[in-house]
Design goal:
By secondary structure, the protein is of the alpha+beta class. The chain contains four helices and eight strands, in the order E-H-E-E-E-H-E-E-E-H-H-E. The longest helix has 14 residues, at 67-80.
Length: 165
């Protein structure tokens, strides 16, 4: 039986919308995986060291992969697309970022992977698109739905719905 994962995606370098489209195409072609639904695109004010605004989205994925296997596949897609990780530099600019937000109702805490994503509840740029595709999904640690988490968010960074192409 396939697992149900929710993935956040963002880009703030190059053609941001095309980067997101390419990443979705690549994830959709992973063996044993199927994108179920995708949110609208949102433009968001950057956090951390990034200077230019991001385009963000979220999607639901059915997959046969384990959380660790899925993380490995997503990192490989980022690398193929030109993502460069800079050690010690968090929240910098990136051509593509693919994050596992939820995986079934699992809580995973290892050196390389934390699910639910630890910044999820603090970031409107993640919560807005996620609420579009998974409003009633329960956060396994907070005990509230994505919609409730969004309503309680104290993040003041601007996030704007982009018009469809």
């Amino acid at each position: 039986m396939p697992h149900r994962a929710f993935i956040g995606v963002g880009s703030n370098l190059g053609d941001r919308k095309a980067n997101i489209a390419e990443s979705l195409d690549r994830v959709g072609k992973l063996a044993g995986s199927r994108i179920v639904r995708t949110s609208s695109l949102y433009e968001s004010e950057p956090h951390g060291n990034a200077k230019t605004w991001f385009v963000n989205a979220a999607f639901e994925l059915e997959t046969d992969f384990s959380p660790a296997q899925l993380l490995k596949k997503l990192k490989a897609i980022e690398e193929v697309m030109g993502r460069k990780r800079v050690k010690g530099k968090k929240w910098g600019s990136r051509i593509i970022d693919l994050d596992i937000l939820f995986f079934d109702s699992e809580v995973v805490s290892s050196k390389t992977l934390k699910i639910p994503h630890p910044e999820l509840a603090k970031r409107r740029f993640v919560l807005l698109p996620l609420a579009e595709v998974a409003p009633q999904v329960m956060h396994p640690e907070l005990g509230q739905t994505v919609s409730q988490t969004l309503a309680a968010s104290k993040d003041t960074k601007r996030v704007v719905l982009l018009p469809p192409n």
